[in-house]
Specification:
26% helix, 10 strands, 3-stranded antiparallel β-sheet, single chain, alpha+beta
């Protein structure tokens, strides 16, 4: 199955799993997805993730979702930049998500990082998604 936007598919899988109250969700692996999940883990939005071997030189990502008092920690997760319309911002123009309570995940020349880290390093890039 060929996917047009694998990052949007990953975000949708996470969103749907949290609506259903599922603890773990699996999806195909890519380096970009791993980096996005690393940022989500560092910022406390997911418990953990691991790369599993699916055989025939294929890998899968297994994400352990986080809940607090029975409610998902991720209230809203949206794709911003997409293959048909890339959104690039300088470090001083990065979106402030929910007054600083949420994060924007940015792909920069120094790697994938949160908007707070990008502002601290004074580096801009492609705004991949926002998480509240």
């Amino acid at each position: 199955m060929s996917l047009q936007d694998p990052v949007a598919d990953m975000l949708t899988s996470i969103r749907n799993a949290q609506i259903m109250g599922i603890q773990k969700v699996c999806m195909p692996h890519s380096n970009l997805k791993s980096e996005i999940l690393r940022v989500l883990k560092d910022e406390g939005f997911v418990n953990d993730f691991e790369v599993l071997d699916a055989g025939k030189n294929k890998k899968k990502l297994q994400v352990s979702l986080k809940y607090y008092q029975g409610r998902p920690v991720i209230e809203k997760i949206d794709r911003i930049s997409r293959p048909a319309l890339r959104i690039y911002k300088g470090y001083d123009q990065l979106p402030l998500v929910r007054g600083g309570l949420g994060i924007a995940i940015v792909s920069t020349p120094k790697g994938v990082m949160s908007d707070k880290t990008a502002r601290a390093n004074k580096v801009g890039g492609e705004v991949l998604c926002t998480v509240e």
